[in-house]
Design a protein that fits this description.
With 149 residues, this protein is α/β, with parallel strands linked by helices. The protein folds into two domains: 28 residues; 109 residues, Oxidized Rhodanese, domain 1 (3-Layer(aba) Sandwich). Helix 6 links the parallel strand 5 and strand 6. The N and C termini lie far apart (77 Å). Strands 1-6-5-2-4 form a five-stranded parallel sheet. A two-stranded antiparallel ribbon has the order 3-7. It is built from seven helices and seven strands. The N terminus is likely disordered.
Amino acid sequence: MKRFRLFPAVIVGLALAFGLTACSDDATGQDKITQLKEEKGRVDVTSAEAEALIVDTDLVNTMVIFDIRTAPEYQAGHIANAYSVEVESPTFGTALTGFSKAAIYMVYGTDKDDTRAASAADQMVAYGIEKVFVLTDGYDGWTGEKVVP
């Protein structure tokens, strides 16, 4: 009979051990933002992560946001404080020489299927820029402040 009393205790112990391990592996809120800030190169982020990064006290005045869509797309609406920099422009590559390599950038396209932001980020990293966040949800998925005419 003792082995039946021991069995539930073993099950509960294993459940707690695995549950605590699983919980400790999850990066939560601020932990996730800290982790994203420490990464180098191209870093893909969701809209929620991007918003948290933008208001982060360490990044609030240092992050540069680029809307890499066409000028008409930008004029139809864009994320607040974003600059229009067309990745498909023939001068995009030469424009990189004017970008600070130490600055932190976020780039975005139209939506999650728009590959222009990833292309721009890859070019920027290849040029030597240390960190470029790519808003994977694009303008359409952005839930923060937008400028719409």
